[in-house]
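FIELD: query
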Amino acid sequence: MTLNNRYLVLRHGHSLANQAHLIISDPRRGSQDYGLSAAGRDQVASTLDHWPLALPDRIVCSPFLRTRETAALAAARFLVPMSEDAALRERFFGELDGGPDLRYPDVWQQDALSPDHHYAGVESLAQVAERGWRLIERLEQAHRGQTLLLVSHGDTLQILLTRALGLPLTRHRELKPLATAEVRELLVPARARQAG
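FIELD: result
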C-alpha cells in the first residue's frame, strides 16, 4: 500500500487516569472523565512548542476526554480542523478496566504469545490493528497529499505502528513505548507497501 498522505501519531498527555494509576478503557467512562492532568497539559504544550515533524493539515483523535483535550490544544496551536473517530479509542481492557495499571504487563505477556487472545476480556491485538488500519484506509480515500495527525492512546498507537511496519503484532512491546505527549511518524517500509 502506497500512502497518499503523511501520518503522525501523538499519544495524549499525562492524564488523570495516569495520575491515579488506573486503567480507563471503557468509552462510557473515558469519553466523559479522566482528562489531562496539569502535568499533561504542560507536556502537550512542550511538545507543541518543540514540534519536530511536519505541521499537520488536520487532526483526528480518539473520542476519549484525554485525547480530545490533547487534540484541541494541537488544533488551536496549528489552526487546523480536528475530528473524532472511534477507531482511535483506547484498547478495551475488559475485566481490568477501572483497576490498577500495574495489570498492563499481564496483558502484554499474553500479547507476546498470540495476537488473538482475549485474556480477561481484553480487546485483541488483531482487533485493535484492524480498526486502526481501516481508519488509515478511509483517510487515504478522503485525502491526498496531507499531513494527518492521529491523537490516540499508548497501546492503540503501539499496535498501529507495529502493523504499519509489517511486523507481527505480538512484537508491539518491542517498539520503544510512546511516552505521554510524544509524537512520531507512522512509517510504512517499502517492502510492506509493495505487499500492501
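FIELD: remark
The longest strand covers residues 6-11.
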